[in-house]
Design brief:
single chain, 947 residues, mainly alpha, Neutral endopeptidase, domain 2, 11 strands, 5% strand, globular
Length: 947
């Protein structure tokens, strides 16, 4: 393969050097070193020839340069005229936490770059990547997204098992490759007794992955680890596998029975409802959604006198719930430990009480008949498998008469008489465990016959009993979901903040002994208050439990346990297959599609030993210098925003001062957490010290990790949160702003190309990573984050006039984005809900702050690194800034996925996240010379500016 020619800026060698040519026959050598004296005429003619050659070269060069500039002008503007690059501080703001592909348009070249070209390997690779991403046949002022990412889209495709693929997925896949490389390099031998903390940590990391990837062993182990847990819940609460009862309690399965078949396709509306619930749940912690403030947040305490359980049942329910909750299994009611956002100190971890969540994604699914039919069959399959193999049933039913009689012979006469008496007593009972002559009952507990002569009734086949029980369990869950609040209320911090004294909550939940329940988790501080997210739910669940038989409750508990831990079983285990059958339909995955086991196991590695994996990722792909540089970029953006606040025209002085105070309080976190300290193997060893990892016990590893995390969470109750802790692992490709915590967080996983490289010129670092940082910062001042003060408390800290002016400008953004759209499979437009995406759109406009911060860094810089150009890219620094921004939004998406997301995702589609942001940004218009009225520079009346 030919080597690339050196840069012409520094090239001294001739362009062509033919080794076959004879230097003695060179024309120039003949002229300047003649073998004989030249005549006067020859000298004159030779001089004229050289002069004409030089003049021709000059004119040709001038003509080519002029033609090139003219073409660039036309490609850039579509008209004649001068190009002027102006640095501006005018910016428009839109908040967002998630990044996707954006629209592109053709760049306007700025002429031949100067001699300060970045020729490091990183810059050459980056330059090549940018060039390949471009579609230079498009005018940047028409469609900047297509200009910036069209080449990328043409060279990529969506994997068969995904609904979309973009820059974020590329980074995530590359991060996984780094972790696989780390895992492969870890020795398989167990660490010695004198092994270092690092060696012990790495051994745990390897063992978790190996225990997960060995599916043959998992399949051989089978269901046993799970049935040991279901046996325990049955011991605590009571059996679910009982003889059929005549009552039709909660059995409404005739309503949906038989409505599901394999041609069923999940309605887009259902998928949207599930996505919305998940987004709102995340938004409570990370902002990005405008929460409506209720007129009155006070909720009356209701008396609960309808149902009073007996003490014995209360103890069994309390013990069962505590045992399940300590293992991460949700049921009936759910307790969580969260910051007290409505209190005086949002960092104090308080106890919150939520409604139950079921095996289906949202309450809307419980009204979809085909889904209920499928769900019932899945639960019936799970319960049947457990009932047929549980040791409880085996101990009860699987006695062998011959073995008992042999035992009687072996025993002495006295003992034998006692055994015979026991057998006679059993024979007189209905629970006689062996078949009588002429009776079809089987020794495994199944009964395929009718009643026999002495009126003993036969047991139905296990599958029939479990089918009936599954119908009751599904209806029970359905009633629980109906009693709960909708997500927009449940996760709204204003509606959901209802603190009561613990003794009051105990009265509201008479079936649960709260002091006994709490003692299971051994919190160091007994909570005086409990925040109830939806008080009416407590009365509903109390009354529902009052009319529910124990065997149905037991079936519900066992089902919740099985669905929670099914993923820790082998792929061929029946319970796992039943769960996957449900998941495939809910996710729209084609039947028979095999899972990517490597991805599955890497996700489990994160869940179980994520910080150890994070340390290894940081060692391979991140540096202290990158961390320091990332923090510097964030601080410079915060500073730029802080300085701009007093000059915001719609914000009065009082509100601007309060906003500056909040900006000063923002805590930036980059790379990795310090609790546990990701850089310290001893800290990680202590963090996972109580976690016993075994290479051949994946289920035990999952269970042990869950127990440890639940215990760790409960130990924080009543204490202030450690500010060095994070919500994400270092290898995560994401970023977030936490309103109650007042912090913006950027894991090392996202500080990778195309978002960041320390080796890049400053304009590219600010254009890509700076945009992410500014996005999260702007969330602190969007229509959600603005409801939290500088201490992370839910407070009104703006004046009423400022709030009104903010809302007017936020609505401008909402109306603008509501005109944007995606296409469905039939080519029809489906429009963005600008109110849903408003917070994220406002955050995206934080790009303006990143641009100002970069410009400020140039004026303060003592070096010329910020002026470095990339080889082969004839664009200005300003233009490359915006190219870097647009590149991170490159994405391909299937129509069905696009429609589903546009209806539920609080982030606008990537195309509009890029183009919508840039349409409102004057600095972009000037950098690319986009005339007013062009697609990327609409008339001022159609633009929105907030921050």
């Amino acid at each position: 393969m030919a080597q690339p020619r050196a840069s012409t800026d520094e090239e001294n060698a001739p362009l062509l050097d033919d080794p076959q040519s004879n230097p003695e026959q060179s024309t120039f050598k003949s002229i300047f070193s003649p073998s004989r004296p030249l005549t006067l005429l020859e000298k004159v003619l030779g001089g004229l020839a050289v002069l004409l050659l030089l003049l021709a070269s000059i004119f040709i060069g001038l003509f080519a340069g002029a033609e090139g500039l003219l073409k660039k002008e036309r490609g850039k503007h579509g008209h004649g005229g001068d190009i002027e690059y102006v640095t501006t501080t005018k910016t428009s703001y839109a908040t967002t936490t998630q990044y996707s592909a954006t629209s592109t348009s053709n760049p306007s070249p700025t002429g031949k770059p100067g001699h300060n070209v970045c020729l490091t390997p990183e810059c050459v690779i980056l330059s090549s990547s940018i060039i390949q991403s471009l579609n230079q046949s498009i005018d940047p002022c028409d469609d900047f997204y297509e200009f910036a990412t069209g080449g990328w889209a043409a060279s990529h495709s969506i994997p068969a098992d995904r609904g979309l693929y973009g820059a974020f997925n590329e980074v995530n896949d590359n991060n996984k490759k780094i972790l696989i490389k780390v895992l492969d390099s870890i020795p398989s031998e167990k660490p010695k007794k004198d092994a270092s903390s690092d060696e012990r940590n790495l051994a745990k990391l390897k063992a978790v992955y190996q225990s997960c990837i060995d599916i043959e062993h998992l399949n051989d182990v089978g269901r046993k680890p799970l049935t040991e847990l279901t046996d325990h819940i049955v011991d605590i609460f009571g059996e679910f596998d009982v003889d059929s009862v005549s009552s039709d309690f909660l059995d409404q399965s005739a309503e949906w029975k038989g409505t599901y078949d394999e041609s069923y396709v999940l309605p887009v509306e259902l998928a949207a409802a599930a996505e919305q619930g998940e987004q709102l749940r995340n938004a409570k912690k990370a902002g990005g959604v405008k929460w409506e403030v209720p007129k009155s947040s006070a909720t009356e305490v209701q008396e609960f006198n309808t149902y009073r359980p007996n003490d014995e049942r209360e103890k069994r329910i309390t013990k069962a719930l505590a045992w399940l909750h300590s293992r991460g299994v949700q049921g009936l009611v759910n307790f969580e430990i969260e910051g007290d956002a409505g209190g005086e100190d949002s960092q104090v971890q308080s106890l919150w009480l939520y409604q139950a969540f079921g095996g289906l994604p949202s309450k809307e699914y419980y009204e979809e008949k085909p889904i209920l039919d499928l769900y019932q069959s899945v639960i019936a399959g799970i319960l049947t498998d457990i009932a047929e193999h549980t040791s409880i049933r085996q101990k009860k039913d699987k006695r062998d008469l011959l073995e008992d009689l042999e035992t009687a012979v072996v025993l002495g006469e006295e003992d034998a008489q006692g055994l015979i008496k026991e057998l006679v007593d059993l024979a007189e009972e209905e629970d006689w465990p062996w078949p009588w002559p002429g009776d079809d009952r089987k020794g495994d507990g199944d009964n395929h016959g009718g009643k026999h002569d002495d009126n003993r009734h036969s047991r139905e086949p296990t599958s029939e009993r479990m089918e009936k029980l599954a119908a009751k369990v599904v209806q029970f869950e359905r009633e629980l979901m109906r009693a709960g609040a909708d997500p927009e209320y449940l996760f709204n911090p204003h509606f959901a903040y209802n603190p009561y004294e613990t003794k009051t909550v105990s009265k509201m939940l008479p079936f649960l002994d709260i002091p006994t329940y709490l003692s299971t988790f051994a919190p160091r501080v007994f909570p005086t208050n409990i925040t109830v997210t939806h008080p009416p739910y407590l009365k509903s669940v109390t009354n529902l439990i009052g009319k529910t038989p124990d065997h149905v409750l037991s079936g519900y508990f066992v089902t919740r346990l099985a669905l929670t831990y099914a993923g820790a079983l082998g792929p061929k285990v029946t319970i796992r297959q039943e769960k996957k059958r449900l998941d495939d339909v809910l996710k729209g995955i084609k039947k028979g599609t095999e899972e990517n086991r490597q991805d599955v196991c890497l996700n489990w590695v994160d869940d179980i030993v994520g910080f150890i994996a994070g340390r290894e990722f940081v060692r391979e792909a991140f540096s202290p210098e990158a961390k320091a540089e990332g923090e510097h970029i964030i601080r410079s953006i915060v500073k730029a925003f802080h300085e701009k606040l007093p000059h915001i025209p719609w914000m009065d002085a009082e509100s601007a001062k309060a906003a500056q105070k909040k900006a000063e309080a923002i805590i930036p976190k980059v790379g990795y957490p310090l609790y546990p300290n990701t850089t310290n193997p001893e800290s990680l060893s202590a963090w996972y010290g109580r976690l016993d990892i075994k290479e051949h016990d994946f289920f035990g590893n999952v269970l042990g990790s869950t127990l440890l995390e639940e215990s760790r969470t409960w130990q924080g109750l009543g204490k202030r949160r450690n500010r060095d802790s994070w919500e994400m692992y270092p290898q995560t490709v994401n970023a977030y702003y936490s309103p109650p915590d007042g912090e913006i967080v950027f894991p090392a996983g996202i500080l990778q190309p195309p978002f960041y490289s320390q080796a890049w010129p400053a304009h590219l670092r600010y254009g890509a990573f700076g945009a992410v940082a500014a996005h999260e910062l702007t969330h602190a001042f969007d229509n959600s984050g603005s409801q939290y003060d500088e201490k992370g408390r839910l407070r009104d800290w703006w004046t009423k006039q400022t709030v009104k002016d903010f809302e007017e400008r936020a609505q401008c953004v909402a109306k603008q984005y509501s005109k944007f759209y995606v296409y469905d499979a039939d080519g029809k437009k489906v429009y963005v809900n600008g109110n849903l995406t408003n917070g994220e759109d406002i955050a995206d406009s934080g790009l303006a702050q990143a641009f100002i911060a970069w410009q400020n860094s140039i004026s303060l810089s003592t070096t010329k690194t910020s002026e470095e150009r990339l080889p082969g890219l004839d664009f200005s620094d300003e233009q490359l800034f915006f190219l870097a921004f647009a590149r991170v939004w490159a994405q391909l998406i299937r129509p069905a996925t696009a429609v589903s997301r546009v209806r539920t995702d609080p982030h606008s589609p990537p195309y509009w996240r890029a183009t919508g942001t840039l349409k409102n940004l004057d600095a972009f218009h000037k950098a690319w010379g986009c005339k007013s009225g062009s697609p990327m520079n609409p008339p001022k009346k159609d633009q929105c500016e907030l921050w």
